[in-house]
C-alpha cells in the first residue's frame, strides 16, 4: 500500500493489529512499550519517534520499504529472478 502521511500509516498499522486479533496492550507487550504509546501512535502519529515506529512494525510482523516515487514495488520473486 502506498502511504503518504503519518495518519495513513497509523491507520494501516491499526488495521493490521486488529486483523491479527491483537489489542493495544498485547502489541505493546511484544516489544516492551506501553499501551498508551500504541494509542498515541494510532490517534496522533505525527509526534511518534522513529524507534517507536520500528518497534510497532516489528510487533505486527511488518516491514517498511522505501523507494523512489513513481517506481513500482517489486516482489521478492521478481528480485530473485533478476539476480539470476
Plain-language structure description:
The chain is mainly α. The chain has one domain: 434 Repressor (Amino-terminal Domain) (Orthogonal Bundle), CATH 1.10.260. It is 58% helix and 0% strand. The chain is built from five helices and no strands. The chain has helices at residues 6-19, 24-31, 35-43, 50-59, 76-83. Helix 2 crosses helix 3 (35-43) and helix 2 (24-31) packs across helix 4. The chain is globular and about 40 Å long. The mean pLDDT is 91. Residues 1-13 have a biased composition (Polar residues). InterPro entries: Cro/C1-type_HTH, Lambda_DNA-bd_dom_sf. Residues 13-67 form the HTH cro/C1-type domain.
Residue stretches low in confidence (pLDDT < 50, at least 5 long) are none
Per the principal axes of the C-alpha atoms, what is the gross shape? globular
Distance between the termini: 27 Å
User: What percent of the residues sit in helical stretches (DSSP H or I)?
Assistant: 55-70%
**Mean of all residue-level pLDDT scores:** 91
Q: How many structural domains are formed by the residues? A: 1
The overall strand count is 0
One letter per element, helices H and strands E, the order comes to HHHHH
Q: What CATH first level would be assigned?
A: Mainly Alpha
Helix run count = 5
In percent, how much strand structure appears in the residues? under 5%
Any guess at the CATH architecture? Orthogonal Bundle
Stated plainly, the CATH topology is called 434 Repressor (Amino-terminal Domain)
Looking at CATH, the homologous superfamily is lambda repressor-like DNA-binding domains
Overall structural class, as computed from helix and strand content, comes to mainly alpha
Query: What summary fits the major beta sheet?
Result: none
Region (Disordered): 1-35
InterPro entries: Cro/C1-type_HTH, Lambda_DNA-bd_dom_sf
GO molecular function: DNA binding
Domain HTH cro/C1-type: 13-67
Amino acid at each position: 500500500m502506498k502511504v503518504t502521511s503519518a495518519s495513513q500509516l497509523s491507520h494501516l498499522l491499526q488495521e493490521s493489529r486488529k486483523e491479527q486479533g491483537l489489542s493495544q496492550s498485547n502489541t505493546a507487550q511484544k516489544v516492551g512499550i506501553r499501551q498508551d504509546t500504541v494509542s498515541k501512535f494510532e490517534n496522533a502519529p505525527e509526534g511518534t519517534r522513529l524507534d517507536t515506529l520500528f518497534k510497532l512494525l516489528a510487533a505486527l510482523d511488518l516491514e517498511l520499504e522505501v523507494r523512489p516515487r513513481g517506481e513500482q514495488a517489486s516482489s521478492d520473486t521478481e528480485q530473485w529472478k533478476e539476480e539470476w
